[in-house]
Amino acid sequence: MRSMLVWLMVLSGGLFVAVKADAAPCRTAELFATDRTAVSTEPDTAPDGLQPFAAQAGRTLADSGEAVTGSTPLVGVSWSLALQRVTYERSREFHVCGPGEPTLHAAADALRRRFHQDAVLTFEYLPRQQPGAGAVLITVPGVGVAQFRDALVADPVAHTQLPNGSITDDHTLILVADDGDLDAARRLVGEAGGNWNAARVASGRREVVASQS
Prior knowledge:
It contains five helices and ten strands, in the order βββαββαββααββαβ. By secondary structure, the protein is α+β, with helices and mostly antiparallel strands. The chain has one domain. It has an eight-stranded antiparallel β-barrel with strand order 3-5-4-8-9-7-10-6, surrounded by four helices. A two-stranded antiparallel sheet has the order 1-2. A hairpin with a 4-residue loop joins strand 1 and strand 2. Helix 1 crosses helix 2. 23% of the residues lie in helices and 39% in strands.
């Protein structure tokens, strides 16, 4: 059957938009990335300065087949096994929509190479029973950078199982974890002062897209 095209006209600007009715459904995902290359052991409390990066990254992702529907500024808080201490990184969570794998992987790798990063984290939303799903994205309101830092430092299990978390500017903690680490995540959230009953847990597939060298 021939593809059906629906034509919409925006009268104010005379703009025509073609929508392909049988196009593949959009699969939503998150990418966590930055253009920073220096390691910081002090939190960056200045206003988010990654707006130019957001625009440049958006173009890179679009060229790779992933449409950016928005982005959220973050402070990444990580436990460094090499330094044996917490490090910080200003970053952004990009909300994207595309055909799914392998396009998502290719887009993340393009972003990694464009901004000289060691790795880019992706999370594709999938039903829990779907093949490939095996991870969760956890969002918990009411957790600040200092609270999460203190909990991460005090929890030696988290140093290897959950060494990375992100905090939004409105104090929402974001954790991406494997299904098997859900209990450790619940404990870490409690240690950071978060309310697990207020947490949202989404299932999906995570991937750390890293350099092969």
